[in-house]
Amino acid sequence: MEKVQSKTLTEQALNQLEQLLESGEWPIGEKIPPEPVLMDTLGISRNTLREAIRSLVHAGYLETRQGIGTTVKSHSGLDRALRKRMRAGDLVEVLELRLALEREAAEKAALRRTDEQLGEMRGLLALWKKSAEEGKASSFVRHDSAFHQAVIRASGNSMFMEMYDSIIDSVHQSIYNLIDLNDLNQEDIRMHTALLSAIEAQDPVKASECVKKYLGTLIDQVNASEHNRKK
């Protein structure tokens, strides 16, 4: 039997950083602490820390962007697998996953939301409407997804939020693929407003119905479009 070798300093640092990431210590999208802080916390040199961070970037846990720094990209292997799978998934699959996740989250949000969270959702919905009126697609997508993220957060379920963060790139893309700001009808606005009203009234059944109607309609539209394309 081969002798078991002791772990290198880099491997030890890597394991410690993975534990911090998987514990949710650092939220997805936020910058990790500065190098001096991590060096002091882990008791390692700058070179060892940088080597461990490079490994985590390659593994998909972290992301380094010029002018921003190193941010958290995922918390776990499941998180990374979801991101990869969602990139390969088709639009209907993305919408069906959103439907399953957002219906449950909307129910919980109606029961658990705070006044502060309600105010945040109200503000984001107003910005969403304003972006549509001004024809600003990128702003529309940003505020639309931010509104739905706020609903997920209001559910009080950290697992919902982590899963939604894992698919957020696909959520953005699905919105881009479907929006037509020139044809944003009153029904779209009414359903989003109704969802907010249901959450405000703490009506979980109504909140769930709003999500089902909104995303269910989008799924039907995509399926119909695909059917016509194949004719």
UniProtKB/TrEMBL annotation:
According to the UniProt entry, its GO molecular function terms are: DNA binding; DNA-binding transcription factor activity
Domain annotation HTH gntR-type: ranges: 7-75
Q: Which InterPro entries match?
A: GntR_C, TF_FadR/GntR_C, Tscrpt_reg_HTH_GntR, WH-like_DNA-bd_sf, WH_DNA-bd_sf
Q: Which organism is it from?
A: Rossellomorea marisflavi
Q: What is the lineage of its organism?
A: Bacteria, Bacillati, Bacillota, Bacilli, Bacillales
Which PROSITE patterns does the entry link to? HTH_GNTR (PS50949)
Q: Which domain of life is it from?
A: Bacteria
Pfam families from the UniProt entry = FCD, GntR
Keywords in alphabetical order: DNA-binding, Transcription, Transcription regulation
Q: What is this protein called?
A: FadR family transcriptional regulator
Record-linked SUPFAM superfamilies: GntR ligand-binding domain-like, Winged helix' DNA-binding domain
Q: Which CDD domains match?
A: WHTH_GntR
